[in-house]
Design a protein that fits this description.
Transmembrane segments: 21-39, 45-63, 75-96, 156-175, 214-239, 245-267, 274-295, 307-337
Protein name: AI-2E family transporter
Pfam family, one: AI-2E_transport
Structural class: mainly alpha
Number of strands: 0
Distance between the termini: 49 Å
Order of helices and strands: HHHHHHHHHHHHH
Main location: membrane
Strand content: under 5%
Number of helices: 13
Largest sheet: none
Shape: globular
Helix content: over 70%
Radius of gyration: 27 Å
Subcellular location: Membrane
């Protein structure tokens, strides 16, 4: 009798519990979807903030070096770092700007003729003719235009993005503690020490990665300039600058830089184009197997396949900025996973044992 009297009450409790679980599940799914939509909408802005942060890390690294070598005050070192860097960049553009501008104009004039020469050579063979017909079809053209539009998309326009990045970098450089402590204050008090530790590790990892990447870019520029000048490529300076700058993008950067260099070399002869292709592959081999290896010794382990996957995903979602900044985003994600999950799980397991 007692079980019969309690069964309706038990059924009602089970029903209430089920409804409660359903509403909790609906709430979690809704919150997740809304968060993903907001993240997708604002992710490009976060990429600009990350780009500004990387430049601020560079400015801070230069100012720290000035402080150590000269013993001047922090504010003065920061000012020298920012103004000095901007003046050096402006001076380089001024000194080599005329030559680079001339070579860029020659490159713009040269590429269409080179492409026509390549088409003529390919039309002489059946396979080449079919490849040209396939690439010049309306569907292929539409796909290329869609990809280019996606790749070169920007949040505020190219110059607007650069303007935002530069001023974010300057503000972060002048008062980094204001922004880092502001982020830490958003964390509950019992987790602020952990948050501060994670921020310090992120800063260290990004600083090491940036130093290695700048060194790698410089080496690629020097080796490419020497190689192209030795081969006798007329536009060697602008092509070397392009190779050095684009090498900031791992994996895909060297391929992008190779295309205009080979097209220019084809104006001289196919043999020259093969020499240029071999030079770029040799430089890429040296950069990947020696320079990058030395850089990785100071960084957390980043599997090459993981970087490529991150580049493909972020490039498809956000265009050029995602492809350029995929590696530092991967560094941030790996550090967060290590600190918030793997290390915590290991410490919990050891405490239980």
């Amino acid at each position: 009798m007692i079980e019969e009297n309690n069964s309706p009450k038990t059924d009602k409790q089970n029903t209430d519990n089920f409804q409660k679980k359903v509403w909790i599940t609906v709430g979690i799914v809704s919150f997740t979807l809304i968060s993903l939509l907001v993240l997708k909408t604002t992710f490009n802005v976060f990429l600009l903030i990350l780009a500004g942060t990387l430049i601020a890390i560079f400015f801070r690294g230069v100012s720290s070096f000035i402080e150590r070598k000269t013993g001047c005050k922090e504010n003065l070192a920061v000012l020298i770092s920012i103004l000095g860097t901007l003046l050096i960049v402006a001076g380089l553009f001024y000194l080599i700007g005329a030559k680079v501008q001339t070579q860029i104009a020659d490159l713009v004039d040269t590429l269409p003729r080179t492409i026509e020469n390549v088409k003529d050579r390919m039309n002489n063979s059946t396979v080449g003719s079919e490849a040209i017909d396939s690439m010049s079809s309306p569907d292929s053209t539409k796909k290329v235009q869609g990809f280019a539009g996606k790749f070169f998309q920007s949040t505020f326009g190219v110059f607007g993005d650069l303007y935002v990045i530069l001023f974010i970098a300057i503000f972060f450089t002048i008062a980094p503690q204001t922004y880092t402590e502001g982020v830490i204050q958003l964390v509950p008090k019992r987790g602020q020490d952990k948050a501060r530790q994670i921020m310090e590790k992120l800063s260290k990892q990004l600083r090491n990665w940036l130093k290695g990447k700048l060194f790698s870019m410089f080496v690629v520029f020097i080796l490419t300039a020497i190689g192209l000048a030795a081969i006798g490529i007329p536009l060697w300076l602008v092509l070397a600058l392009l190779a050095g700058l684009i090498s900031f993008i791992p994996n895909f950067g060297p391929i992008i830089a190779l295309i205009p260099a080979v097209l220019v070399a084809l104006l001289q002869s196919p043999q020259t184009a093969l020499l240029v292709a071999g030079l770029y592959m040799l430089i890429q081999f040296v950069e990947s197997n020696f320079i990058t290896t030395l850089v990785q010794q100071k960084l957390i382990n980043m599997p090459p396949a993981l970087i490529i996957i991150a580049q493909l995903l972020m490039g498809a979602l956000t265009g050029g900025w995602g492809l350029v900044l995929a590696t530092p985003v991967t560094v941030i994600v790996i550090v967060l996973v290590q600190e918030l999950y793997i290390n915590e799980r290991a410490s919990n397991s050891s405490s239980q044992n």
